Amino acid sequence: MKESIKSIAIVGGGAAGISLFNYFTKKINGNNVNITLYEKKSYVGPGIAYQDDYDFLLLNRHSKQMSVMVEEPDHFWNWYKSQYKVRFEQEEFLPRSVFGEYLKNVFEKSVERAIEKNIAVCVKYSEVSYLRKERNYVLMTRDGETQEFDLVLLCLGNTRLHDHYYLNGQPQFIYNPYPLKQTVSLIPKNANIAILGSSLTAVDICLTLKENGHNGKIDMLSRNGELPSVRGEAKPHKLKYLTYDSLNQILLKRNGQIRLRDITKLIKKEFEETGLEWKSILAPKSHDSNAKKKLEEEIKNVLHQSAWQSVLMSTNEIIEKYWHFLNEEDKDIYLNKYDRIFMSRRNPMPLVNATKILNLMNKGQLSLKSDVVFIDYLKDHTFYVQFNNREYINYNWIINATGPSKHLSGPCKSGLIGSLISNGYATINNYGGVKTDFDSGALINKSGQPDTNLRALGHITCGTYYFTNSMEMIAKHAKQISEDISDLINQSLQEEKDFVSI
Ligand SMILES: Cc1cc2nc3c(=O)[nH]c(=O)nc-3n(C[C@H](O)[C@H](O)[C@H](O)COP(=O)(O)OP(=O)(O)OC[C@H]3O[C@@H](n4cnc5c(N)ncnc54)[C@H](O)[C@@H]3O)c2cc1C
């Protein structure tokens, strides 16, 4: 008889942890299995992205495509329509906090289902800070409590934000902007503000400042000087060239690897099929391209955006396999040259937000600046920002919107992840996060072996799967992992039953 899995720990109760937990309670047959969920915050469900915050902070995907279950993409939408007590004007892109409420509800329903199936559930509001392998896996929390498990699933979310200019800890520097309800309220309305980055988080910050009546100047300081694209109406697109078949053919020809130029050719054909020119969408732009003009054009031609965005969205299907087989040297080139531009195209902002951003630019209150050389915090409590063109500006406040770092370094190497790495249970992936087995999400230990009873989901697997920053991808991986594990559990439960009845 195989070693049976009786006790499962899910570390992290955000969207990934909830999606996994929900699947487990549907798929495990019950009896004698217990699941413990660890969450360091005082609530389970919303995590960082969907926590309680302003209603104008919207989902970046259509509400009908946000779900904890890949097979039911409109699960959230149906819940909102049938249960949520408040109605919103912009229902295509609902507030993220509503999705957080949905996650809480999914969790409650999953607990009810678990009880019906005799699956014991325990929630511990504690941070897991250490993992040790003995006969099983011993988890230790920050308050010193230890418990043993047969299987541990890590759903930790983002481990660390970028801090390119080493400003964390300086007064008037906001390292983690969320929840914006709390952070932005610290800033005087007339302050001169720099936002580091020009991504969706930077857009959230601008919208919040605007809604709070901020009247000081706001500059987004960004390396590429580009705003996210404006979201059109993405329609289902059936990939014709960027397919598994094309990938398999190339892998046969090239000894199990694919090159960036092979992918570029397929992308080109895929775009041409829809009457589009790939370079105008995905090729890196020169720094001096005018962000305001580009935004105006995108707002005007929002219907044109739909076509290419539909193509990009449909790559969710194949993206991780293409990444998996991409030649190592080309992975580096891609990350240095194309990653940022792909992400800014792949994660566009809703039209309503784009219009608000354009209004701020038209009023002269918001500008985009690129090519920062360095930033210093001065004795007069302002930040001195030096640009490449010798211009410099003093800001009263700086808000970080550079997003999560893919790479594990500095503070990430402490705490739970640090213990995993220093004990050799996990190894650093040069392309981001920790190394995981592509098929199972199992952590790869220092001997290069996958440990199928220690698995990860979400951001710390970004080096393996590349695009992990979306609910759809999280739910897809949660389904795979939960099916795999539930099969093992159900099989061993059945074997036990058969053994007893002999
Ligand atoms: C601001 C923002 C907006 C986003 N908007 C969208 C969107 O609109 N649509 C979309 O598809 N995707 C979106 N994403 C991407 C993705 O869906 C979310 O990041 C998603 O919430 C990730 O879920 P997660 O569970 O991996 O991480 P999180 O939601 O961050 O959850 C991780 C949880 O683990 C807990 N935790 C961490 N370490 C420990 C520990 N050691 N012990 C105990 N608990 C621990 C944390 O407290 C947290 O609650 C967004 C991401 C961000 C950051």
UniProtKB/TrEMBL annotation:
It comes from the Bacteria. PANTHER family: BLR0577 PROTEIN (PTHR40254:SF1). This is FAD-dependent urate hydroxylase HpyO/Asp monooxygenase CreE-like FAD/NAD(P)-binding domain-containing protein. Residues 9-158 form the FAD-dependent urate hydroxylase HpyO/Asp monooxygenase CreE-like FAD/NAD(P)-binding domain. Gene3D superfamilies: FAD/NAD(P)-binding domain. InterPro entries: FAD/NAD-bd_sf, HpyO/CreE_NAD-binding, L-asp_N-monooxygenase_NS-form.
